[in-house]
From TrEMBL:
It is an enzyme of class 2 (transferase). GO terms for molecular function: methyltransferase activity. One of its GO terms (biological process) is methylation. It comes from Tianweitania aestuarii. Its EC number is 2.1.1.72. InterPro entries: DNA_methylase_N4/N6, RM_Methyltransferase, SAM-dependent_MTases_sf. Residues 514-861 form the DNA methylase N-4/N-6 domain. The keyword Chloroplast does not apply. The keyword Transferase applies. This is site-specific DNA-methyltransferase (adenine-specific).
């Protein structure tokens, strides 16, 4: 068996950057005719072996691909392939003719058209071109090639959605899902496209899977929140955003200008697009009606696809008229007439007899002849669709005018088409006229919003490139900076809590120093509470999570006193059908894994306490127990998932009788005798000493024992408030901050610096009002009144971006029962995952000593406040307080 790596090595192994699977390029062999920027990119791509080249429009993407594939063939021999969209292959032939004397291109549609394999070391190579449709239809097997590049791979989305997109690219990895086989994939793989939409995360994940960097499912789990209704609708965890883009930067190069890589921008700095929007009136008389028959007052294309299509048809002639009006400004100018519908194409052709059109069913030779002819300036006007010629074509040398006969919601196609003319080599300012109707205002707003989002995210990626350049080590170094934590300790009467990694903290604790452990462990990869790699939720899967627990559990065993108990709160996990591959949700027995892991490290398993949960609430979270789905097919339905408290015991030193080294003893209650239902004392007349009953409220009763021993516990559900809930309560009931501070002041010696620190923490959290003093200096002197708080206004909105709630926060009564049953007053209760310090709070309330650790700085800060309140014998606001306050507010309104 391999030795366990050190904890530091384990954490550093969490940094997931794309592996280098390529080779080192001799700079002397790079084509000297290429631009300096391109000559710098080629070695980076070849060193990685599987990389994405996201080069903004006009930054020589074609030349870069050609040289990268040439270098791969020189290094390894064999066949090279570049897959291109329809109508784009001519750009590669023109580029080879201009700058690549050591490359010969051949367009193929079948394997028998392939040339002989290239020989290792040969400077003159043959590279094959083919269309996406050829690969999609299975006419060419990608596994025949040593190196392959996908040019403008985003066009695959037009093949029928992300499923086809991913299955297509899986064939290059040797994963032929249709045939059910797995073969050796293409050794060197590349993607080259002009800045994919950074907001379309699923596209980036598909590229990562194609390159063999990370599977789509794994990347979803690591970086994104899930939408249970739409599998590919992803929202990135805000606290994982930087890590995500650094990970992307390890395998994808986003370049917007040569200066991003330190080169000269001369010739690339073009004037901004001249954007002109033209709104034409809509026919509101044809606005239609709602589903319930209610007539609409205004036409609105945003009502849906059908309504948008109707609006296009109703407004066609008016849009054609506007297009002709714009053309009349300069009838002889070269321009592209972009459209989306065949009816629009036919209307353009009818109104402009000399226009040349390109459409989907046009034969390939004619299509290419017209596209090349327009690019060379042989005729003035080309009518085409963004989905056909919006990618890969270079129209900048003779055209600087685009007219869009209509607009739609397909941002990527629209944005790509804009830059067929706005690119390196353009000598004029590019004009863009966009025609839309009054009913399409929302469509315009959506396009403009997504455009702003695109530019913002692209600028972030550009900043990463400027920051790290082409050095993978610099990116890894940036990720390493999120490793580790600076320990902070807070202590008071009866408690000590630390902001730290729980493994590191427990290693510094004395052996046999804890009387009871009560904790709710993270539920594997379900949530990440911090961006730190120390976070136990920052793991790849259950096995990876338990591998990190293997560093903690032995320390828990070491610090627990012999014979004492560890109570571990867990819950089994739901596995979505898209992850388990079964098409329906299943259960991961996380609690069983927990039992096995603790037993493996020496703990004895005592019992499993079942805590019932609300099945309706669970269904709202997982959509797996719905009544409608049960009626459709009862075989899909499982049952509600309870929570569990698993009890483990560290064996005592003396195992002959099984008692703890220091037993947790309980006094039985006082008893009184009963005659005819009336209690009597031993000195009373008639006492026979035979019938007795316990005195209520004294000692540990038989009734309490029966409930404690039962395997099912009920819970009220009450618990401490999470920080964002506390912020809500404070907005409704600001008295809780005031009262908590007052209680602490009355129970502690005044410390000016502690007072300042408290107000600063309130201010940082957005809880310090600017119009009154919520934490004034309090005094116990009878002549000094400090109980009057003049709260005129209060703005306590707390921004909690990216913070995730625990799957099932631990409740007060569950913790209380564990503490009362398994510890005695004055003993130490420890929680390695302190969170908002529920366990220390309960322990202090019950007269125990408390110790805990928490990695999340926000949870730690608020948890310290809870500990201060409990140590001062005050009461913190709870979930029930919040519900009551919100109910009162609703009633008042």
């Amino acid at each position: 068996m391999n030795a366990q790596p050190s904890y530091s090595e384990f954490l550093h192994a969490k940094i997931r950057l794309a592996e280098q699977q390529g080779f080192v390029v001799d700079p002397a062999t790079i084509n000297p005719l290429l631009k300096p920027m391109t000559q710098a990119i080629v070695p980076w791509a070849c060193r990685g072996g599987r990389r994405a080249l996201f080069l903004r429009f006009g930054l020589h993407k074609t030349s870069t691909q050609l040289e990268v594939i040439r270098q791969c063939l020189m290094h390894a021999g064999g066949h090279g392939l570049i897959v291109v969209p329809l109508g784009v292959r001519h750009e590669f032939f023109l580029e080879v003719e201009a700058r690549h004397p050591n490359i010969r291109l051949k367009f193929i549609r079948r394997p028998d058209e392939m040339e002989a394999p290239n020989v290792i070391g040969a400077e003159q190579v043959v590279i094959h071109l083919t269309n996406y449709e050829t690969v999609r239809d299975g006419k060419i097997d990608p596994s025949l090639f040593t190196a392959a590049s996908l040019d403008e791979a985003a066009c695959l989305r037009g093949f029928g959605g992300t499923k086809t997109f991913r299955e297509f690219m899986a064939t290059f990895a040797g994963d032929d899902r249709a045939a059910g086989v797995k073969r050796d994939g293409v050794r060197y793989r590349f993607v080259a496209t002009a800045i994919p939409d950074p907001n379309e995360y699923i596209e980036l994940l598909a590229y990562a899977a194609f390159l063999g960097v990370m599977e789509v499912g794994e990347a979803k789990t690591r970086f994104f929140k899930r939408d249970s209704e739409k599998a590919d609708k992803l929202t990135i965890h805000p606290h994982k955003e930087e890590e995500f883009w650094l990970w992307v930067a390890s395998w994808a190069l986003f370049v917007q200008m040569p200066s991003d890589l330190g080169f000269d921008d001369t010739g690339y700095e073009l004037p901004p697009l001249d954007i002109r929007w033209h709104e034409i009136p809509s026919d509101h008389a044809a606005a239609g009606s709602e589903r319930d028959g209610q007539a609409r007052m205004f036409a609105n294309a945003a009502f849906g696809v059908t309504e948008a299509s109707r609006e296009k048809k109703r407004s066609l002639q008016a849009r054609i008229d506007k297009m002709l009006e714009l053309r009349a400004e300069d009838p002889a100018a070269h321009r592209i007439l972009w459209h989306d519908l065949e009816d629009e194409r036919r209307a353009i052709e009818a109104s402009i007899p000399d226009v040349r059109s390109v459409w989907g069913t046009l034969d390939e030779d004619t299509k290419e002849k017209r596209v090349v002819g327009f690019a060379r300036g042989e005729f003035a006007e080309l009518a085409t669709k963004p989905v056909i010629n919006g990618s890969g074509c270079n129209f900048q040398h003779h055209c600087a005018w685009n007219i869009y006969l209509g607009i739609g919601f397909k941002f990527h196609d629209f944005f790509q088409s804009l830059f067929r003319t706005q690119r390196f080599g353009q000598q004029h300012q590019v004009r863009v006229d966009l025609i839309y109707t009054e009913a399409e205002r929302e469509t315009r707003r959506t396009l403009e919003r997504r455009w702003r989002q695109f530019e913002t995210q692209a600028a972030k990626m550009s900043a990463l490139i400027r920051r790290f350049g082409l050095a993978e080590q610099a990116i890894e170094g940036a990720l390493r900076r999120s490793m580790g934590v600076e320990r902070i300790e807070a202590s008071g009467d009866g408690y000590l809590v630390a902001h730290n990694d729980c493994v590191e903290e427990t290693r510094g604790m004395e052996a046999d120093s804890v009387d009871l452990i009560v904790t709710s462990i993270p539920f594997s990869t379900q949530y990440e509470y911090t961006p730190s790699f120390n976070d136990f939720g920052h793991t790849d899967d259950d096995a990876h999570f338990w591998a990190q627990m293997d560093y903690l559990i032995p320390e828990l065993y070491r610090i627990l006193k012999p014979g004492r108990v560890a109570c571990i709160h867990v819950k089994d996990r739901i596995v979505p059908g898209g992850i388990n591959g079964m098409g329906f949700q299943t259960v991961s027995p996380f609690s069983d894994d927990c039992v096995a892991r603790f037993r493996a490290h020496g703990f004895a398993f005592l019992s499993r306490i079942t805590v019932g949960t609300d099945v309706v609430r669970e269904n709202n979270q997982t959509y797996r127990l719905g009544w409608t789905e049960q009626c459709k097919d009862g075989t899909r339905m499982g049952n509600g998932m309870p929570e569990y408290v698993l009890k483990f015991r560290k064996p005592p030193t003396d195992r002959s009788n099984g008692y703890a080294d220091l037993p947790v003893t309980k006094a039985k209650p006082d008893f009184v005798s009963v005659i005819d239902g009336q209690p009597v004392s031993p000195g009373d007349d008639g006492f026979d000493g035979r019938r007795v009953r316990p005195v209520a409220g004294t000692g540990y009763s038989r009734g309490r024992w029966q409930l404690d021993a039962h395997g099912v516990w009920r819970s009220s559900g009450d618990r401490p408030l999470l920080p964002e809930e506390l912020a809500r309560l404070i907005r409704i009931e600001p008295k809780f901050v005031y009262r908590g501070w007052k209680a602490w002041c009355e129970g502690n010696v005044y410390q000016h610096e502690a007072h300042v620190a408290f107000t600063e923490a309130l201010d940082e959290a957005g809880r310090l009002p600017p119009t009154f003093m919520i934490a004034p200096p309090h005094s116990s002197h009878p002549e000094i009144w400090t109980d009057v708080a003049r709260m005129r206004t209060l703005n306590m909105l707390q921004q909690r971006k990216g913070q995730e709630q625990h799957l099932c926060p631990l409740q007060f009564d569950i913790v209380d029962r564990a503490i009362l049953q398994h510890s005695m007053p004055g003993e130490t209760v420890f929680d390695p995952f302190g969170g908002i310090m529920t366990v220390p709070y309960c322990a202090l309330q019950l007269g125990r000593q408390a110790r805990a650790v928490e990695l999340n700085p926000d949870y730690f800060r608020d948890g310290v406040t809870y500990c201060e309140m409990a140590a001062g014998k005050g009461h913190a606001p709870s979930l029930f307080d919040l519900l009551e306050a919100e109910a009162n507010l609703e009633a008042a309104e």
